Amino acid sequence: MFAPDKLVVYPAQGVGRIERIDHKDIGGVACEFYIVRIRANNITLMVPVHNAVNVGLRPLITRKEASRILDMLRTDRERTVFTGQNWNRRFREYSERLKSPELAVVADVLRELLLIGRTKELSFGERRLLEQAMSLVGGELAEVLGLATDDLREELFALYAAQPAADAQVKSA
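Below the sequence we write its predicted structure tokens.
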């Protein structure tokens, strides 16, 4: 399904390149593995070829889908996020959603954390989740759309920055 030198996405790790396909005998059974090097952190993964889709290995999203997700992040900034549940439950929920093979689900976590960060300081765990979500979303969107990852990251943080109190009063007047 995937070939060496192709870019792929592994859930919760991000964009990687298939370096090669290895053949190994494990317990007397011949197995094939994709050797995937993750770009963000240089980690190497061995993904069984026969189980690659089941673990979420997938090709990069289309340019159209990437544009749709980026537009959503750029425009859907006024939604109110319910933070009534305790941070521990929210942390577990977001951690699970970050493992999704669907970039739109991960982008939604990113948007929610950016929105929460507008009104309150994020906990250490939430900041870590925000960084992970930004890395996953930013890495794939930048690759597909031909953008600089750092520029995209800066743009999103600027778009979701808390408005100074004086600006907020002027807008409501």
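The longest strand covers residues 14-26.
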